[in-house]
Design brief:
This protein has 165 residues and is mainly α. The chain has helices at 2-26, 56-81, 85-96, 98-107, 115-134, 140-160; strands at 50-52, 161-163.
């Protein structure tokens, strides 16, 4: 039990550091930058993000997919807290990986997205599948950086794009 509590504390601390690190990496005044497989997008404020001009049904489908991605991240962290690496890997692969991309494409009903959005979406799915691949190792030294990359891919896309008002 003590090991699980200590592991949870470490996981929460690492996740907070990961989020802070992601924010610092996007700060133009930050001296510490990271290399990433996530494509670079122009640094913009939340009000200057590129609007994805999608039909209403496609917007609804994208909103649902984004909520499911967030719920999957939450469930992955919860599974890690329980040391249920098998469940975490299943979630990473099925809910964030390429199978979810195919579901999203059906929901979005053939809507056209900018190439930069597509590149970010592919980077997200690749990061999630890489996360799914390292989760069975049960090695947090491998898992947490890959979880950070997966979350970072989400952040990069949300920094660059928004739905219509």
């Amino acid at each position: 039990m003590k090991r699980a509590v200590a592991g949870m504390g470490m996981l929460i601390g690492m996740l907070w550091l990961s989020v802070a690190y992601s924010v610092a990496a996007t700060n133009p005044h930050s001296a510490h930058k990271t290399e990433s497989d996530v494509p670079d997008v122009p640094k913009t404020s939340l009000t200057k993000r590129t609007a994805l001009n999608l039909p209403p049904a496609a917007q609804d489908g994208l909103r649902l997919t984004m909520r499911e991605h967030l719920e999957a991240i939450e469930a992955i962290v919860a599974a890690l807290a329980r040391e249920d690496f098998t469940r975490a890997a299943t979630l990473a692969n099925e809910e964030l990986g390429f199978p979810k991309h195919h579901v999203a494409m059906q929901r979005e009903q053939g809507a056209t997205f900018p190439p930069a959005y597509h590149d970010l979406a592919m980077a997200h799915h690749q990061a999630a599948e890489a996360l799914g691949a390292v989760l069975p190792t049960k090695d947090l030294q491998q898992i947490l950086p890959q979880l950070e990359q997966t979350i970072h891919a989400c952040v990069k896309c949300h920094q660059a794009f928004r739905l219509q008002d």
